[in-house]
Amino acid sequence: MTPPSGEGAEPTPYQRFGGHEFFTNLVHNFYQRVPKDPVLREMYPSQDLEGAEWRLRAFLEQYWGGPETYSEERGHPRLRMRHIGFHIDGAARDRWLSLMAASIADQGMDAQLESELWKYFVAAAFGMQNVPDPTPESPVTFPITSIPNTEA
C-alpha cells in the first residue's frame, strides 16, 4: 500500500505509529525477549531469530499500511497456515502476548495508539492458537434444564 500523499490525506496507521523506526524497535524489543522465555524460545530456532524478526516487522508494516515488502518477498501472509507446524496452546499464546505487551510498553506510545495496536495483537494471538485449551471440569450434568413433568 502506497502511503497517501497530498494535502488533507489521512495518515495510515503505519505513519501514526511512527513508521519503519517504530516497527523496527517494537519487533526488535520483542525478539530480544524470546531467547530468555522458557515457553517461546523452543518455537524459535536461535539461528533464525533474525529472519523471524524481519518477517514479523515486514508483516506488521504491511498490515498497518506501510510498504508491501512482506507480500512482495513471501506472498500472501496466510498466518494460520504458516503457524500450523507450531504447538500454539493457551500458554504459548499468553507468553507471546506478555512479551509483546512488554515490548509495547517500552515504546512509550500514546494511549489511543497503544490500545489500537494491543487489540490487534490480542485478536491475532487468539487466532494463531491451534491447540485448544482443556475443557474445565464442570459439576453441571445433562440435560441442563429439566422438562417439567406435566403428567400427574
Topology record:
Layout: H1 13-17, H2 19-33, H3 49-63, H4 69-74, H5 79-83, H6 90-105, H7 111-128
Helix pairs in contact: 2-3, 2-6, 6-7
Can you tell me about this structure?
This protein is mainly alpha-helical. The chain has a single domain (13-128), classed as Globin-like. Helices cover 53% and strands 0% of the residues. The protein has helices spanning 13-17, 19-33, 49-63, 69-74, 79-83, 90-105, 111-128. Helix 2 (19-33) runs antiparallel to helix 3. The model has no long low-confidence stretch (mean pLDDT 87).
Number of strands: 0
Shape: extended
SSE topology string: HHHHHHH
Count of distinct structural domains: 1
Mean pLDDT: 87
By secondary-structure content and strand pairing, the structural class works out as mainly alpha
CATH structural class: Mainly Alpha
Question: What's the end-to-end separation, in Å?
Answer: 72 Å
- DSSP helix fraction: 40-55%
Q: Please name the fourth-level CATH homologous superfamily.
A: Globins
For the largest beta-sheet, the strand count, sense and barrel status come to: none
Total number of helices:
7
CATH architecture identity: Orthogonal Bundle
CATH topology, anyone? Globin-like
Instruction: Give the radius of gyration.
Output: 21 Å
Q: Spans with pLDDT under 50 lasting ≥5 residues?
A: none
Beta-strand portion reads under 5%
TL;DR?
This protein has 152 residues and is mainly alpha-helical.
Characteristic terms for this protein:
mainly alpha; Globin-like; 7 helices; extended
